[in-house]
Amino acid sequence: MSQMNRRRALQLLAALGTTGLAAGCATEDDSEARPTGAPIRIGLIRPESGPGKQVGQDMANGFDTYLALNGQRLGGHPVTLEVADEGDSAKTGQAAVDGLLKKGVLALTGVVDSQVLAGVREDVERARVPLVASNASPTSLQSVVYIWRTSYVLDEPGRALADYLKVRLPASSRIAIVAPEGAASLDVVQGFRRQFGADDKRIVGEPIWTTAAANPNDSTYRYDIRQALGRRPTAIFCNFSGKAAIEFVRQLRLRERWAGNVYAPGFLTEGTVLSELRGTLVDQRDNLKPGTIQTVLNYSADLNNNANRVFAGAYRKKYGVQPTTYAMASYDAAQVLDKAIGLAGPEPTPQQVNLALGKIGQIDSPRGVWQFNQPRTPQQKWYLRRVQFDGRLLSNVTINEIATLG
Predict the structure, then answer these.
(1) Matching CATH topology for 3-152+302-372 and 156-297+383-405?
(2) 252, 265, 331, 352: least surrounded by Cβ within 10 Å?
(3) 223: which residues sit within 8 A by CB, 6+ positions away?
(4) Which DSSP state fits 89?
(5) Rounded CA gap, 338 and 348, in Å?
(6) Does the domain formed by 3-152+302-372 have CATH 3.40.920.10?
């Protein structure tokens, strides 16, 4: 294909509204055929230590994957990615935002902790620089102008799972709820209880709130688990991630030898959790032990669509592991910024990019097609996943699509 015909093809794709697909499948030659604008800076906010460090690394990897597939450019502009440590509080998050603004960033992205996100709200709105946040968002974050989210609102996983379970679990079921104390867990649990029906007799007792331990040990959840099992549950709904998820499941399955069904938002089994839990969930003959673990999430690495084949293939090739929902949401943050910056004109300002974010329409994403709703969060599908073998690999295998929320 000649250079002129290549450019004409790209123009036609843009006119047909397929720029998302074209971006996801870009080659080095395609990216070089695009007009080149002035260099821009994007600020990435993530924790560089503590329990959120791995999530932050996944987000950085997801954003870098998109840049690698698109010639290190967004909207035709070469990108310098400026990284700042969000720390573990609103105050440290505000310092990160302030430092990036002083570097003249066109837009911000990232933020792992939902309380940090809430804490930087006023700084972002006052600066009038868009923040495309790519992890969980508290339900209390409302009426924002410059904050967009490519992840989900924290009550949505519980709502999606509750809708699915309330029509499928028999009347004799008994569900105990166990979750770490904290505002994020409260959003998740309230979403589940409200959608399932807080007065539904299948929910036995009030939620059991555990210690929000950054480094749990092999007895951290022992008392809470025994309290839950004292209610004779047939199922447990919980909300843990990372090291906490590993210890909770180990103590539930190994120490207490409980073999009932576990239901949770997908963070319970994201990242390296399943590899750490193989000895807990698999017997010496490589068979799964009794008791299923089913989770709900807006993404699974095995989704069969073209955008996910491009993303997951590139991610596995570069990092040697399956992408997580955290990496996917950051990849999509780069994608929506790419579209918005392209729409904002040859010399984009933060305010022009923010206006353009409201005009980008549908996103051809690895999770499936989605779009921003009025509160600036995704209207998207949610998937039920089951922990089982995919070949010899213990994986989150997609069972079916169970809800569209947002």
Answers:
(1) yes
(2) 352
(3) none
(4) S
(5) 12
(6) no
